Amino acid sequence: MSEKITGDTHSQVRGFGIRILGDVTADKVEDTSGMDYIFIQGLKDHGLLRSVWQAGAILFPINSVGRNGGPERLMRKLAPL
Fold first, then answer.
1. Can you list the domains of the chain with their CATH numbers?
2. For residues 30 and 36, is the Cβ–Cβ distance under 8 A?
3. Is the pTM of this model over 0.70?
4. Potential cystine with 49: which of 42, 43, 45, 73 (Cβ 3.0-4.6 Å)?
C-alpha cells in the first residue's frame, strides 16, 4: 500500500462528536472540518505529521466579539489539538 494510505492516520471526520463541545450542528462540523484541514495540511507541509500521534481542531462552546476591518461580529473559538 502507498505511504499516503498507511501513513495518514489523521481522519478529518473521526471524533467530531467529542471535538465539538455543545450541540453538534452541520455548520459547526463544517467549521471544525475546515480548521482540521488547515492544521493537518500545515503539519504535512512542514513534515511534522508523522511526529505527532493525534492532531485536529476542537470547537469551544464560546463566542468572542471580533472585527476584521468591518463591523463587530461574534466569532466561534477553534483551537488546534
1. 11-80 (3.30.300.10)
2. no
3. no
4. 43
At 22, is the secondary structure helix, strand, or coil?
coil
Question: Which of 6, 1, 8 has the alpha carbon at shortest distance from 52?
Answer: 8
At position 47, the amino acid (one-letter code) is: G
Cα gap 35→31, rounded to integer Å: 6
Quick one: cell of 2?
502507498
Could you give the CA distance from residue 8 to residue 29 in angstroms, rounded to a whole number? Answer: 21
DSSP state of 12: S
State the chain's mean pLDDT as an integer. Answer: 77
Burial of 62: CB neighbours in 10 Å, binned 0-12, 13-18, 19+: exposed
